[in-house]
Queue: 4 jobs
Job 1
Amino acid sequence: MPVINFSYKDLCSVIGEDVPIEELYERIPMMGAVMESTDMTSDEMSVELFPDRADLYCVEGMGRGLRAFLDIEPGMAEYDVEETDIEFTVDPSVKSVRPVFLGAAVFDVQIDDTFLRSIMEMQEKLHVTIGRKRSKVAIGIHDLDKVTPPFTYKAVGPHDIRFVPLAKTEEWDLEEILQKHEKGVGYRHLLDGKEKYPIILDANNNVLSFPPIINGTLTTVTTNTTNLLIDVTGTDYRAVKGALDIICTALAERGGSIGSVTIHDGKEDIVMPDLSSTSWEFSAKECASFLGLDISPEEQVAALRRMGLDSMCEGDTIFVESPSVRLDIMHVKDLFEDVAKGYGYEKFGQGKIDVSQTTGGLMPITNISEDLRDVMVGLGFTEVTTLTLSSDKDEFDNSGLPKLDNVRVLNPITEDHTCLRSYLMPSLMRIFRRNKHRDLPQRIFEVSDVVVDEKRRKHLCGMIMNSKVSFTEIKSYTESVLREMGMEYSIKASEYRTFVPGRGAEIVVGGKVIGCFGEVSPQVITDYEITHPVSMFEIDLVDYAESHSSALF
């Protein structure tokens, strides 16, 4: 979880009044944070925040939150946005590279060393969290007085433009930056496969930024900077807009004046930043029931205002306005959580509320799984547990089972773990491969999850490895399981290359194939590097479970 560091005196200056440090150490955790430092005699404070509250990732956001939470200024903070003539043009060339661009300006900011460090720390915290290490969001903050509008965001060739990147003294082209600059080396994977790279230029073709890699040294922000230009690029509009709003409002907390910019993207002109709030409403009775509190609508309104939201009630209905910086509010249940925090977790359990007695129980599929484990143990099989991760080679190429659209692992660590499994059989074959030197016969089974059509399904798979196996033997085990399940079924020949021709079968229930069994073919056995004959069965339990709402036996 992100940790922010700041000065106690600096926090009080943002809050607008001196709050006893003991009170801050007591109240900040109630907002949803952990105090990293416990030394109340020190001016330095360190707070670990939950990942959902990106608006608190700086001392400015923390000060704004505490003003409301401590009832100093409850309700939503308001910020004026003044109109400017600053314009950005987004060229269509960036749509296939880094398509989302938003910007803003902030004027008359008084920057000292403490504030400058806070800006840089906030920027990096947003990069790592909602920015997913700059892959989703990258932020540039520039000295506006060093460049000339209008600005252009476009894609150019790796060798088309040269500029001096931040913290360097010589000009490099974009490819050289990716190869030589420490930030280029660290983030060049974000531009892998791209023929052109994004760049932000001013009216005189001066480079502001090479997102998401590095800014130009020309627009470096210092303690002499008073007017700022902010650019945010990325791949997700909501995250980009949220990061822009958080940056702008944090700067406004320091006395800055937010200025709008007009963005032309070829389709429509948009004006940013847009700090409009979002409207919600919910039932006070539903909220109280959800939290298990005897809390009135008026108390819920007060609690929400302590969380920096505007709120009012009419009868049982609570009306809420949430600020644009609260990216964590996506459902009324998130507002219920804010009611709990604003009301005070320390007050939970003080009142009385009616509790309805209910009886819990296992889901049908869980009942079936547990009962089938007993059946398989009774038949002489040993249970194993294997990984859900697998590979296409094991799942389909080696097994001979029908190929399905499986769930892929985006960045697999090894070639053995590239997807989620669609069958249990390959996993059990790998168990046999690792135990082929053990005594025979070996009988193993697993009741576990596979993923089919992006949904989890419960399968049962049983396998036998012995010096001799027969179709009759595995058929008898399969039919024993089906009989214990009370299932009406039929059997038809299988064409899967998994099985020896003529020694494989499919299980049909209600006209639908729910499983298969038979002698595994020598080719499949060889592909799994096994040296003994194998027979197996595998059954999909989900369709059966959905039609049986109670335990089997």
Job 2
Amino acid sequence: MKTLFKSGDIFLWFTGAVLGVIILMVAGLLLVVVLNGAGVFWPSAVVEVRTKAGQIFMGEIKAEEEIPPGSLPENMQDESHVRIQLKIGNRDVYGVDFKWINYYELAALQYPADALCIERMEYGNMYGRLIGVKNDGVYIAKGDNAWPSFQNLAEKSTDLVRERIALEKKSIGAINYEIEQLRLRKKRLEFYNEGALAELAEIDRQVSEKQKSYESLMLKVTDLTRRAAEASVVVEIAGGSQKELPLSQVVRFYQPNQMGFFAKLQMYVQKVWEFLREDPRESNTEGGVFPAIFGTVLMVIIMTLAVVPFGVVAALYLREYANQGPFVRLTRIAVNNLAGVPSIVFGIFGLGFFVYFCGGSLDQFLFAERLPSPTWGTGGILWASLTLALLTVPVVIVATEEALVAVPRGARDGSLALGATKWQTTWRVVLPAATPGMLTGVILAMARGAGEVAPLMITGVVKLAPNLPLDGTFPFLHLDRKFMHLGFHIYDVGFQSPNVEAAKPMVFMTALLLILIVLLLNLTAIIIRARLRKKYQGSTF
């Protein structure tokens, strides 16, 4: 045993075992997220159950578990029983999305071939049987003949809804923006007493023309809304009652018990694509997360562009130019301690310094006519990105210093001996050789910044952002706008949603997506680092 300790092999085995445990823990965490998230959009079979008490429910079986003994009747305490969690949907009818049903209470359980699942804009899924299709309140098809009419009218209604949404977001949004700019221009002229009567009258005329265009577009929107709501589908829900649903509320419909594997796979791909490109709905528990994806990636890019120059310059001065004395040592200690400050503290600093001081000052000097409504003096993606840049700058400084130390002294001496200046040596020899190590700090900063939530909650992130920070309206990139973030989306859906059970699948899917995005960003930086390392290692290492 003494020989084993002296050789150090036992410590090698111990560190290897610890590394293996860490890898298994990380793999287990990823496995849990994948198992709970990847199957969210798979079309499940619809079951119809009848209880001994005469109740009938229809929906998807989401979970099955053993009933705790304390929840069983006294005459069943010595036996084990199972219950199922049924997603019954139809929240406008039942008031809930899920219901636990005990197996010993069941009288019948079957998978009807004609079971219909309708995904709709609100109140969750609707499960039932197709009765017929109406147009203007009159049946146009019933029974077996209703399915083709249902498909055709649903497609037309979906097209009308999409046309209305596009009209509201693009044309009407652009007119509203132009009217607002004219209003602010008039207010600015009046505020500074620079507006001539003729110029103010011209602005009023332009606003009047824009208002007419706006009213004309609103008439089109009203017409599209009316046409989309003309058709409706009548569904018989569990228990025999009928429910009429406007087709404008239908997102997707299918009969899962009649679908084969490839049909389900095709629908699964469609749902995943919708999740990636659509806006959220139903308090973020349904629909997509595209605004959150866009906000997360854009915030990480802005944060990286801000943190890299400051971190590299600070590390370069501390390592290459500063006299190595007590002040520099204290500075390094301060930087290392800064990395351990709770993230919410950085959020409070960002709120006070960036939002209230910097943003408020900009509003006072450049946008006084818009006050008291703030432009920059409120949370936005720029202030959130700069706050996270401050949060991650210690990581970049430490990694860059380590990379600079790794550059051989001979490379510096050789450059200076050939007549290069200190700056030329630093710029042309030291920095290129240290770039792979610097990118390690950037990778760590990106990974931490993409997953932070607490600072963002008070510097610009919101539950739902109707307008993206990047659009087709000048100046195109609106850094003052609030934004959505995948990390905050997970928090909001998982802990703030009024319907926790319905939100749970979305939490796992969004977490899986966030992991994939962070992995993709890191892989991009790792590939660049590997190429730079291969390029410079021959000449400097």
Job 3
Amino acid sequence: MSAQLPKTKGIHHTKGEPLVWLTAMGLTIGLVMVASLLLVIISQGVGVFWPKRVTRFVLPDESGKRIEVDGVVVKRQLKTAEAGKAPIEEIQIYTGNREVYSLAFRYLDVHRITSESLPADALLIERLENGNAIGTPISLKTGSSTGLPAEDPSFRSGLAKAIEEASARRSAIDHLEKHVIGRNAAEISELEVRAKSAAPDRQQALEADIATLKTRYQELAAEAKRLRKVQNEQSLEYRLASGETRTVAIGSIIDHHYPNQLGFLSRFGRFCENLWNFVSERPREANTEGGIFPAIFGTFVMTLLMSLLVAPFGVLAAIYLREYAKQGPIVRMVRIAVNNLAGVPSIVFGVFGLGFFVYFVGGSIDRAFFSQCLPNPTVGTGGIGWAAMTLALMTLPVVIVATEEAVVAVPRGAREGSLACGASKWQTIQRIVLPAAVPGILTGMILAMARGAGEVAPLMLVGVVKLAPSLPLDLEYPFFHLNQKFMHLGFHIYDLGFQSPDSEAARPMVFATTLFLILLVIVLNLGAILLRERLRRRFATAAF
């Protein structure tokens, strides 16, 4: 007979299941919150680039006179009414023409609107200043001549050609002023500094070279002035919905299109073009217009440089604490200090970076090697190098803790087998422990990159700026300028949301920039994750 298990009274196999379901519910709530946040950011961020139609609203003004307003519908909402009255529905429209209406947005009460229409000839003009303009084209003028009327069949091709030529001249002016003239001015400044401490005979030669460069500077400045004058020779005359006539120089027009004449494929093409321009262009109009390429580039370079700085120091510190340091009260205190550093507010690291890296280290380098340039600092000022070092110091505890945990997880038998075969301790660490711990080390690097890429507070003190004139990496010697100011996506979001003069115009840009910051962090983390998985498969035998 087979033995039967005794029945146990009072024990239920479902005991504890409510707690299991509670944890599952917590996980579900967390995932729903993250998904909802991403959905809001994606919907609001992507919607910025989709071309919207221009609607003409007809309504009476305060005196009862009939007025017409052209604008792009942004949103509909209920306006808070007085006590005892029903809320009033209103719509927010983007009217553009900031120089005419003072603000680019306007609210209209729905019950006051008498009619709505989509004018086929409505033209949306993207400009360098004052935001977009919305109106009906009248003519393309050259100087004071009547020019080409909008009714002419060749008007659209003529306008497109004029804008294309103006864009080419704008690129030439930009290259001339920021590269050729900028390089000339930098050479003049360098020679003037060298002339201060040069011998008398050498000083005369330097002054002659400076005079030649200044003459060249005047010629280049005159050429830039001539090109700018040509930019303003042609202009586009257009009419607002109110009947007022306005004129915009062709040189200040970036792009144009007729939004109410676009089909789905044309709108999708315009969407892709807007998306590319946002990623590839520089910001303008107090960062409320244009693109975010300098901010993307600065964030990527700063995060990559931070990772290259924090990895060796964090790994070496963890190996010493775990493998070489004698375990005792001092080591325990160091570990407690490292763990506490992980909870220090980031602004504290920013203050330390400003005081130690910028003022002390950078100031010492200036006094030792660039004394002839003082009081203007060369290295003792905020830059992308000091910012990367500050964030590397901030994320160092994360890498140290992750590396220690990864080193401890390596099986003891693998170490003893290596030592038994005659390998030294360092050879064992180098060839057995570190390869097996690389996945765990990269996990710490992923966490460090994710935190470093999104930090803003310390960067505001050690190098980030609202608008950087040039990139920290270019083709000019020494190619990588560690002492140069840079732009950052996180600070760009802060500037748009809290420092913009037109908060309504900046709100869509906030969502779009946030979306690209999340995408950049995902790309950086995904690259580290793929590398970690590849190394894990490669060194899988190290765990046996």
Job 4
Amino acid sequence: MTIRLIPPNLVNQIAAGEVLERPAAAVKELVENSLDAGATAIEVVAYDGGRSFLSVTDNGSGMSKEELELAIQRHATSKLPSSDLQDIQFLGFRGEAIPSIGAVSRLQITSRTKESENAWSISVTGGETTSPQPAALNSGTRIEVRDIFYATPARLKFLKSAQTEIGHIEDAIQRLAMAYPEVSFTLYDEKRKRLNLPATQGLGESPLLSRLNEILGKEFSANSIPVNAERDGAVLSGFTSIPTYNRGNSLQQFLFVNGRPVKDKLINGAVRAAYQGLLASDRYPVVALFLTLPFHDVDVNVHPAKIEVRFKDSGSIRGLIVGALKNALAEIGHKSSTTSGIGALGSANVYSGLPSQAPAPATKEKQNTYTYQSYGFRSSPSGFAKSFAASAPLGLSESYSAAPAPEVESKLEDTDFPPLGLARAQLHETYIISQTKDGIIIVDQHAAHERLTYEKIRSEEGNSSQLLLSPEVINLTDSEISNILSYQDDLAKTGLMIEEFGSGAIVVRAVPAILGNPDVNTLIRDLLDTIADFSGIMSLEEKIKNICASMACHGSVRSGRRLNGAEMNALLRQMEAFPNSGECIHGRPTYIELKLKDIERLFGRR
């Protein structure tokens, strides 16, 4: 077999296969060049999903006639002032995009610098170039791509429908627009303007948050919190959603390194670790995180499309992200998603008529049987510690008695209402109805108490053990015994004491005091299921959190449990005092809030 050099046009086509997966990849590369050129306005046009025609026009610095001739050659770049590949300060630096696009399409570049009297245009068709010709254009650059992949028809077969491809183009532009809110972006297809993102001035909020609201929706602002942290020269900023504002996939997790949109498993894993115990395993937060660090500490030359990066100190970066997100989430207190209440109102049925038949009059036996469960409190509630201790798990009554319930009167001044209001009723022995200053709150008593129990178990205060009067022996398989004993020391930190008991069994000698008197057999079985779900990459801390989450279910006030007024108000006060009490350990809201003005709209009063 004879060794020979690959022809230049074939080299470019091979490069195009690495860089250009679809039309959206070409748009991404060209828009990055526009940003590197200092453009403040970028317009993209795409017909037939970018197959037949796409163009990118900017008002950047432009190129001279001589630079145009260099731009279409492989590995020609203005983005590397030195030969140091670790000192990359621009988005497009490899010099592959334009010659790769020209190798598989009909490419025309028209550009003009601010100092030039006229523009110049050059064409590339399937790798064949023409000489620069005079043209008309304002300062900046316009690049037109026609019949993409016509020179490599096999690639056309892998493209999806025009609607799918234009969707990918829109996504690529939005990602870059997030990182550059000071730049305006527009996208047109054959029929309409699909995207219009003017440069944000940040009136009343940061320019970044204004841009994120335009892309992610106005709800994001009301349900997100800022993230700011710094460690060893690396700076993390951006916004992340509160746990109850989440999605069923990770498509709305946007990550940027030095202004470059990336897809990085380390960063995604760090985000997931930060929300451990706040979200169910199949739910994902909405995040837009921007990591800025010295150029020598990150390698962006890992992938031809520059969508992957490699960090010099990955452990430090992961710790920075996890710590910053946890600190931000710890400050939100009991805040819950605003969309929960809106969704409840949207599901409400509005009745305009009256029943055709009046209800039957109450019999003597049914009279005077209504309590606060349906009509609110008519008298002062009984002492909480006395009433709750009889039925609450051991240890909970003491913790709640530290937060005495206020006396509930029939009438209160607006200033008397605490953040989560005062309990007025319990519905279906599951939901607490609370009156606030400007609306009502509906609390899921089990979900709320589950969160509080979880936080107690995780804290040092919740690590005390309660010895069982009669140690419980549980028969297990050899593999189950091996699994649970491998976490024997970790379980002991939470107050659960287990030992091997002969062949095929373990003995439970103590449980966390905060759990009261749980079903020990069910508790152990649930813990085994939790341990079986542990992934190999999960840290020890995350595994312990999962164990705590499993045990929290066994120490919580169950649905169907009747609570009196003092108990309900004590639960509300504890929710106000604990972080993350707005969502249960599975990521569902513990309460929803309905504003009075929204309720009035349901009744036509507004």
